[in-house]
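Q: Please design a sequence for this.
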């Protein structure tokens, strides 16, 4: 699924909340932090994602604006704590 310069976050992504993805952003050749992220929330022009991080014993949360996202690729669930 590719997203290019148009925010379709609420219309398309709400059905994928709690699913896991690799996220590709503008000006990057690798997935965001090269790990899979779980979609937590979808706003009008942003998404909220999280991943589990063993080193901190919890989760890391990120907010990405839709216009920075160029693609999402379905991924297996990330490592759980």
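A: Design:
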């Amino acid at each position: 699924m590719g997203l290019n310069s148009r925010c379709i976050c609420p219309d398309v992504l709400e059905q994928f909340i709690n699913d896991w993805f690799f996220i590709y952003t503008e000006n990057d050749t690798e997935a965001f932090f090269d790990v899979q992220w779980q979609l937590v929330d979808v706003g009008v022009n942003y998404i909220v994602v999280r991943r589990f991080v063993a080193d901190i014993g919890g989760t890391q949360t990120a907010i990405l604006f839709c216009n920075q996202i160029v693609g999402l690729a379905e991924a297996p669930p990330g490592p759980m704590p």
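Q: Thanks. Anything notable?
A: The chain has a mean pLDDT of 86. The first helix runs from residue 9 to 13.
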